[in-house]
Amino acid sequence: MYWKFLIKISKICLMSSLLAFLTQEFTQSSVNGQSLSAQTVESNNNSCDSLPQSQQLTSSFQLNNPQLIEAQRLNQTIKQLYDQGLYAQAIPLAERILSIYQETIGENTLELTEIYNRLANLNSRINNTTKAEIFLKEALEIRESILGENHPAVAQILNSLAENYRIQNKYYESESLQKRALSIYQDNCGEHNILLINSLSNLGLLY
Q1: Average pLDDT of the chain?
Q2: Do residues 67 and 104 lie in contact, with contact meaning Cβ atoms separated by under 8 Å?
Q3: Alpha-carbon distance 185 to 202, whole Å?
Q4: What is the pLDDT of residues 61-96, one digit of tens each?
Q5: Residue 64 lies inside a defined structural domain of this protein
Q6: How many CA atoms lie within 13 A of 24 on its CB side?
Q7: Looking at the domain assignment, is residue 100 inside a domain?
Q8: Where can this protein be found (predicted)?
Q9: How many C-beta atoms surround the C-beta of residue 38 within 10 A?
């Protein structure tokens, strides 16, 4: 029972530290004449973890490619199924898009990482965390190779993979990735960015 008490105390201390951090940031923002909520809106409009604009899907050749037109149609269907909670039905469609992208724009593109990320999300929704982990690792490897290891879009995948590990009770692995994501956001997104705050919150779930 004693160790459970210690864990509870640790959680309280962590949440108190997080609250103090947010209060300090809010106060400093107000002094500067800009509220934290206003900065949050700004960060959402210009998210620092956005992927760079790619030319892979915007060339005239690709726009007229019937396979990519099919992929766009499948994307709309996936969104509808997702909104209805029909995740298992959406997975084969996302896998078809993955196959189309691999055939048309190549194996090592940022667009591919978005499909891997979507497949990971869908599999997580049906509690297939093992398969979701595989897709997230694929996305992480590609983003690191294209964007570098310190890009916020890499941190976004790190956060998702860390959450996947947390669900699997792999707390050490999860903590390591969450701390790395937090460091990336601190380096790139500024002290008031909502991504940094969310990363702190995710880290707090581990304690």
Answers
A1: 76
A2: yes
A3: 13
A4: 466 789 999 999 999 999 999 999 999 999 999 999
A5: yes
A6: 8
A7: yes
A8: Cytoplasm, Cytoskeleton
A9: 12
As a whole number of angstroms, the distance between CA 78 and CA 51 comes to 21
Model pLDDT for residues 162-195, shown as the tens digit of each residue = 999 999 999 889 899 989 988 888 888 877 667 7
What is the count of structural domains for the chain?
Answer: 2
Q: What is the CATH number of the domain that holds 138?
A: 1.25.40.10
Read off the amino acid at residue 52: P
Q: Are residues 116 and 93 in the same domain?
A: no
Same-domain status, 148 and 174: yes
Instruction: Answer yes or no: do 150 and 196 share one domain.
Output: yes
Of the candidates 90, 153, 81, the residue with the CA atom closest to the CA atom of residue 120: 90
Residue 169: give the domain boundaries.
112-120+127-206
Inform me whether the pLDDT recorded for 16 exceeds 90. no
Query: Which amino acid, residue 129?
Result: T
- The token duo for 67 is 């396979």
